[in-house]
Amino acid sequence: MSDLKLITDRMIDKKKAEIQEKIRQTELEAKETIALAEVKIEEEKVRQIKLIDKRLADDFEKNKNSLENQKRNKILAEKQHFLLNIFEKVQTTMEQWDETEFQQFLLSVLEQFKSLETIELVLGEHSSSKVSEYWLRSLTQQGIPVSLSSETISKKSGFIVKDQTGIQYNYLFDSLITEIKSQLIPSVSKKLF
After folding, report:
1. Residue 83: is its pLDDT beyond 90?
2. pTM of the model as a whole
């Protein structure tokens, strides 16, 4: 019996040793698995941090560009508003010319048409008081064949010149400003902006 007990004890010891070895192996494998998992977790953490940093950098760049665009657009809008204000002031100034200033401008235009047989002058409603028949007769005596039309152009300042063939030359102040604006804004914009 003691042999049986000894064999049993040895078998139990052998099984215990095997189990202990399996436990030790399992513990080693578990430690390796945990270590690998920790490495993977750390790598994933680094990858996620890089992604977040990239997203933040991209968002920052987008926001920066957006702010720069908004700033540029605001500056452009202010400059355009400034330019339009200048043209409005020029038109207002022209509309407020006294009789002498208006007649000087009109004379400079009519002299360009001196070679025509007849010139008909159609005044804007707001300019009709700035030209008299007497002044026009003096121009005719100076060799500018101009006659005043009985019609006026409602709610306008300036005038239209008609030649004997019916061609009309528009010198209404709002039209002049519009034409000058379309010619000047591109070149002025290049210099200002």
Report:
1. no
2. 0.64
